[in-house]
Every structure is written in structure tokens, then in C-alpha cells.
């Protein structure tokens, strides 16, 4: 009887160990889940999208949330199509923030704007996107963010004519980034999002300013407008001219638009930044 009892106990131990091993195996093989947040910032956007596609290829399940500015500046339908999503979330279609983040392994900020970084650094959470990041902090969810758009020294910013900030202002913006790092957020270049999120060592890259691609070209996969170019002139045949449209034709000197076209406020600011001449035809 003693031998039988010992055998039964040994078999039970083996069965328990096999069950434990199987549970651990299944947990390890579960797909990673992430909430991806986009602000209205466009610098680094295309590189962030490339990283997200790589994560999806590795089996990651993504839920994408756009800020109100993101809904105006980016193309939610193109993002949904490129990432093969059923829905892109924003303030008007989110019924429960908790349902978005409660099962998330990570939060990924695909484009951290200057405004978003500044608000987070002082604890302001007055938008859905900021509130979600706040919940991520509070719930202990790792937050990784692309810093390109909030970094005053990013070379693409200089190409947009915004690389002449006073030193004190630059220090303030860098201070916001440092505070977010102290909160535990990982801020990396957009092209390093994939390596950082997947636990790999980001590739060290030294990209000279002259090699940086113009925003108008890098974002053409998700931002489309009807344009034509002729010797420094560009025609935007649209009823509503947005910031996205202007970013695509930033290299032109003269932009011709329909006489009754509406130019959004963001587009006007961008036109002034690039010093473009607008002619209504």
C-alpha cells in the first residue's frame, strides 16, 4: 500500500507539473495587446506606422485612439485600412476607457505632440487621450512614446521652418521630456518604437539633417490629396484645404487653389510657416 501511495503521489506531482508547464506555455504564447495613441503631430508619424505594422506581424493586437486634433490632421480611414482595424477610436465613439486599456500590456504613443507632452508633464488630463495615458500611469501599464514631434531638436522640425526656438524655450520643451521620463515613460525615436516595444535593442542611427525626408513624402501612404506640380507651382483642386494638404506641397513656392476653397486655421499657420504664396483661381 505504501508503494502504491508513493506511486500515486508521484504521478500526481507529474500531472500537476505538466499542467503548470502548459499554463505557462499558453501565457507566454498569448499575443501582446497595446493601446496606440496618436495626437495631431505629424513628425515621425510614418515611421511610427512602420513600427506598428512590424508589431502586428509579430502577433500584437492593437487598438488605435486618435485625439481630436489627430482626427482633423490625420486620416483615420487610411490608418484603419493600413493596420487592418475594425475601428479607430476617438472621443465620440469611446463608451468606456477602461475597456480600452484594462487588458493592455502596453500603451504606445505614436506621435507625442509638444502640447501633449507639456500637459502630461504638469498632470493635466483634460482630453480622452490624456486621460487614457493617465490611466496607464495609474495602472502601472508601460508607456512608450515617439518623441520626434515634441523634441525641439528633431531635424525634421528644422525642415518645417521650426528649428529656431529661443534657448530657454528649447530647455522648457526638453524639461517636459525629462519629466515624462521620470514618470517612467520611455521616449524614443519613432523609428525605434518596434525595437523598444518588443524588448529589442534599438539600432543606433546617425542620420544627418540633410538626409531627413520631407514630411510631405513620408506620409503619403496615409494622407492623400489631389495635386499637380509645374515648375514650383502646385494646384490643390479641393474645396477644403487642410494642414495635411499643405504639408504635401511644402516644397512648392506657389499654390493655386479654387476661388471658393476654404482654408482651415491649421493650414493657414502652416502656409505662413513655409512662406507659401496662395493664389485663388
Automatic annotation (TrEMBL):
A single MF term (Gene Ontology): catalytic activity
Domain (Flavoprotein) ranges: 32-129
Identification of the protein by name: Flavoprotein domain-containing protein
Pfam families named in the record: Flavoprotein (PF02441)
Domain of life: Bacteria
Record lineage: Bacteria, Bacillati, Bacillota, Clostridia, Eubacteriales
UniProt-listed InterPro entries: Flavin_trans-like, Flavoprotein
